[in-house]
Give the backbone structure.
Amino acid sequence: MLLHCNPDKPNPETIAKAVEILGSDGIIIYPTDTVYGMGCDMINPRAFERLCKLTGQVPEKANPSLICHDLSHLSDFTKPISNHVFRVMKKALPGPYTFILPCNNNIPKIFRSNKKTIGIRVPDNSIVREIVKALGNPILNMSVHDPGDEMMEYTTDPEIIHNYYGSKVDLVISGGFGHLAASTVLDCTGEEIVMLRQGLGEVSW
């Protein structure tokens, strides 16, 4: 299923359909402020197994990020963070960044492993953030990679994404062309913030 959605004013019916699918073991593809993402409800282990199988990963070793609506429930998933890290996150988000943080005991239960960290995303994209807000839980997110072009890591055209993944997932939301670059990844598990990957987000603090 392919649904078009205006990123400036997301259609409530499209948001409701995405939430319905996510609540029923579903996997959806959606725009973010970087590349298109593929994800499921974080509290649905059956959907997470489907997501890992689709992306060729083992659940215990997979490293999806959590897409959150905002930072209000950060303590539900992470250990206490320093004031400096929180200030940086407040300045950068919503935006094209993934913050790697020490996770609390709730995350290993989801992954059935001794996972120590989790990536947190709050994209500057109204479609996916409205989905997460309506769902009431973060989305376990993985980037949509290009299935055929060895010269291009990410597929930017939602129509092409649907042509390939439409029969493999439950919904593709088209919100315009995506970017060729992913998020900037910042490791916040040590005393200093360390950039692990330069993406769309500029580091200026």
In short: The radius of gyration is 16 Å. The mean pLDDT is 91. Helices lie at 12-22, 45-55, 83-92, 106-111, 126-135, 158-165.
